[in-house]
Design a protein that fits this description.
Oligomer: homodimer
Largest interface: A-B, 26 and 26 residues
Number of domains of chain A: 2
Number of strands of chain A: 10
Number of helices of chain A: 6
Largest sheet of chain A: 7 strands, mixed
Structural class of chain A: alpha+beta
CATH superfamily of the largest domain in chain A: Nucleoside Triphosphate Pyrophosphohydrolase
Shape of chain A: globular
Strand content of chain A: 25-35%
Helix content of chain A: 25-40%
DNA sequence: GTTTCTTAGTGTTTTTTATACACAAAGTAA
DNA sequence: TTACTTTGTGTATAAAAAACACTAAGAAAC
């Protein structure tokens, strides 16, 4: 154990908050423009210090709620970044989390947050051209890899969609995250075979073409099936 | 940033060092018996404080080398544990890593380490009956889940075997880690189809039955194939 | 109100991959 | 020489993945 005289690192949490924008079919992340140095004017993931009596995930959820107004989102620890000079002010070890949220579903809450002058949803595909603070480009890279890897064997894609969605939206989401194209018939067959999506007696509204049937994800059924050894796979 | 008066957590690294004992076909981890309180007499994973100017992985590799005498092992960040009261002495955040090593291959170095009175290789299957310090049972659980998950889509099983091994050893290793039985012919076909194992003109020695042909893993070829988009899968 | 445009929704065939399964040959020990 | 243990090998069946194209619905434009 360090003596009290011995310097200790600071410990922070950072949150990569992914959102799927159904309108524009675009994967976005929430970024904050830094007002002060270091990296004033650059963008950074929301984050902050971990309180001394606070659990890491609790701290991450607190940051998440502060920025989006939402709790109870899908959230998972991503990676811990601790390169000695990642923060010029001193030794800062950052435990990164990533969260998934549907932009359409929570449009109202999120809008409040994103209306703040210094907070913005930025498309993942534009991110390489933006100056990110600290090692947040690296954080982003690892978050994307994780999302890509995980979406195939855990039904987390649904966390990014509104409660009710057409299957085409789900397919487009998968295609964007995985960076591939998928055959419509094969994709629908596969999804429906899992029995994890429930068809509703509702249809898309305000579209200028045939309206698609809406479905919802049956999370309870999934959790029950997992206990029985079921493994989701796309 | 915390002011210097504000208390900060300590940050440690802990290493779950997995080894495969070919002799007894047994998966083991390296544990240290604690001499002092808290948890005197209990077993714990090797670990220690991160120096202020030291990278996290560097710290983990330093601990690993101190305990096993080996460097350059397969090692990966596992998870960061930070529940406020996981260490009764104060707030300690532990970044856990896991490493893979072949017991047979490095028998000499490891023996030196494991000969120390307080250091021992303990079979994973006996671990639930052993009193582990801190939250190390939880660490163990997560390390095993990771190993099980990862072994199927990354050729890390080879890291646990000696340089030259018969295919039967590889199969037994997979069966133990995955907790299943595998068909010999199908398993061999699958492994050979990847072209990642090179058959040698050498055979098992000192066995009281027909000696099996030895193979070695072609790591360079694997890394090259990965660049071309190859995905290992068992 | 007919035409145009866009997206929804649906089956079958072929190819690939996974699974199930058994016996002869090698080599050591008794 | 016999018994025992482990190696090493092929085929047939079942399941899953991939490839592929047209009709129907509905809104918008003319």
């Amino acid at each position: 154990m360090y003596s009290y005289e011995y310097p200790r690192p600071s410990v922070t949490v950072d949150c990569v908050i992914f959102a799927w924008d159904s309108e524009s079919s675009d994967l976005k992340v929430l970024l904050i423009e830094r007002a002060h140095n270091p990296f004033a004017g650059n963008w950074a993931f929301p984050g902050g210090f971990v309180d001394m009596d606070e659990d890491l995930e609790t701290a991450a959820r607190r940051e998440l709620e502060e920025e989006t107004g939402m709790n109870d989102l899908f959230m998972e620890q991503l990676f811990t970044f601790g390169t000695p000079n990642r923060d010029p002010r001193g030794r800062v070890i950052s435990v990164a989390y990533y969260a998934l949220v549907s932009l359409a579903h929570h449009a109202d809450q999120i809008k409040a947050a994103s209306d703040a002058a210094d907070t913005r949803w930025i498309s993942v595909k534009d991110l390489s051209e933006i100056e990110l603070a600290f090692d947040h480009q690296e954080v982003m890279k690892i978050a994307l890899e994780r999302l890509r890897g995980k979406v195939r064997y855990q039904p987390i894609g649904f966390e990014l969609l509104p409660e009710k969605f057409p299957l085409s939206q789900l397919q487009i989401l998968y295609e964007h995250v995985l960076g591939t194209t998928l055959d419509k018939r094969n994709f629908r067959r596969k999804i429906l075979k899992t029995k994890l999506v429930i068809p509703l007696d509702e249809y898309q509204q305000n579209v200028s073409h045939r309206a698609a049937q809406l479905y919802k994800f049956d999370k309870n059924k999934y959790e029950q099936l997992v206990k029985e050894g079921f493994v989701f796979e796309i």
